[in-house]
Amino acid sequence: MQEDALIKKVQQGNQQALRILIERYKHHVFKVIYHVVRNPKDAEDLAQETFIKMVDALPSYQNQGFTTWLSRIAVHKAIDFNRKKQRQKEDLTFFDQDYQLTDGHNPEEQYLAKHEREMVRAAIMEMPDKLRLVVQLYHLEGLSYKEISDQLNMKESTIKMRLYRARNWMKENWKKEDF
């Protein structure tokens, strides 16, 4: 049966003509796709998808070389597949350093800990300036009283007093459920 006659019958809904058309071109479509994806299993799956796409696109076919037209559909399917696969690889390999499993905690715990740290930092920013600076240096930077006093050119007793006032300010202004 001629190609054009088969295509017309498929367009009219003839299932037998569709089977013949698929049988005639399945090896060609597989080869085209395999050259792009280099995996036989993926090539088989994409060949099936290509024939489904062919049936959907057949009404727009305009007798311009069926093999070329079908090959173009197959190549586009294979290229789209490779792009999607590459995006998935990128998504899986992109991790924020805070979420990598380095200390035995699961990602959910790491996320919650990071979120809590961010909330504490935001709350510290609401503190009065005199108290905030000392809290940041002592609690966030890990500096000693001596190091803070040297850096701010203040007495150690002043640093201790500001940290004491900062703790009292936190007790008065922060609620535990906020964190």
Automatic annotation (TrEMBL):
Keyword Transcription assigned: yes
Family annotation (InterPro entries): RNA_pol_sigma-70-like, RNA_pol_sigma-70_dom, RNA_pol_sigma70_r2, RNA_pol_sigma70_r4_t2, RNA_pol_sigma_r2, RNA_pol_sigma_r3/r4-like, WH-like_DNA-bd_sf
Sample GO molecular function, one term: DNA binding
Keywords carried by this UniProt record: Sigma factor, Transcription, Transcription regulation
One of the GO BP terms on file: DNA-templated transcription initiation
Superkingdom in the source lineage: Bacteria
Record family assignment: Belongs to the sigma-70 factor family. ECF subfamily.
Annotated NCBIfam families: sigma70-ECF
Descriptive protein name: RNA polymerase subunit sigma
Biological source species: Gracilibacillus dipsosauri
Phylogenetic placement of the source organism: Bacteria, Bacillati, Bacillota, Bacilli, Bacillales
